[in-house]
Amino acid sequence: MSTTDHRSAPLPQPTAETVDFPLVHRTGYLLHKAGLLLMHEADRALESRGMRMRYFYVLAALEGQISLSQQDLSRLLNLDPTTMVALIDEMEEAGHVERRRNPADRRRYILHLTDAGRQALAGATRAVDDAEQGFLAAVGSADRDRLRQILGELLADRWPSVVACED
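Above: the chain's sequence. Below: its structure in token form.
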């Protein structure tokens, strides 16, 4: 186990706001704070589309090739199952998502992105991309790529499992 002091890495230059705020030395806090700020910016960008980040995340998750159930999305997105049901109801009513019975387990539904959902996702993706680019503008392209790679490495093997759904 390493005995490296958590303060040994280079830190941002102290400002009046950080001089006496020891949490600026905690990677977990900085990740959390950056994530909250980025989510806020993305939420603001999605407001004009009548959407919030969790709605966007569901659309984006369903764009993939893996068949997902409400339960799977609830675990993957860390949303309460009751909240997920209400969100999927809203998305189904908007014509963006449809529920289909899972042929392998008739008690479960597989969620499918509709054509209208794909269109909504395309516009929302542009808005979220713009928000992310704005938030990360102070960081060079290579460092943004490296940050994404590092985060991927940190999260590898830490995703909740999903139930295999057969179409």
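The CA atoms of residues 20 and 134 lie 28 Å apart.
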